[in-house]
Amino acid sequence: MGTYYKKLVGQKVYLSPPDPADAPIFTAWLADLEVTKYTTASALVLGLEAEKEFLTGMAKTNLDFVIVETATDRPLGACGFLMADPTQRRAEVGIFIGDKEFWSRGYGTEALSLLLDFGFNVKNFHNILLRVKAFNARAVRAYEKVGFRKIGVRREANLNGETYTDEVYMDLLAPEFRGRLAEALTR
Hints:
Helix content: 25-40%
Oligomer: single chain
Structural class: alpha+beta
Strand order of the largest sheet: 1-2-3-4-5-6-8-7
Number of helices: 6
Shape: globular
CATH architecture: 3-Layer(aba) Sandwich
Number of strands: 8
Order of helices and strands: EEHHHEEEHEHEEH
CATH superfamily: Gcn5-related N-acetyltransferase (GNAT)
CATH class: Alpha Beta
């Protein structure tokens, strides 16, 4: 396992900069179709070296994090901003929990809240978008819990096996999000 640094800390999880030493665990997660069927990575086949390169790239962006359980320092997933546009003050968010033991227990919701707090109050984004496969009801509930609203559907945008599924678009605006970093940064 990698070395973790508590950049953004919650009750259950903290977000740490990525460490390429985590390549074996990420490779295992991304090889598991049960995990990746909910992501855009289901068609990817990444070996250990490719995953190391990917994590090295993530570590250079200042926009990506490993989700780590606070109590055990155990990595359980990743999250970050895609296609960040500082001029327009917008970004897209991506998140996944690779360790299935942590599914449906609030870890992803807390990690996403920490990431959004960073995005709105440190990176100064105004609009944050996400895309989710329509059949991923667990994720939609988590996104709504932190304040995301559905703004549209791209019909039959994803091929899963022999079935096309819709992709739901959701977004959140800075004034709609209440985080704790804004107050902490002004003290």
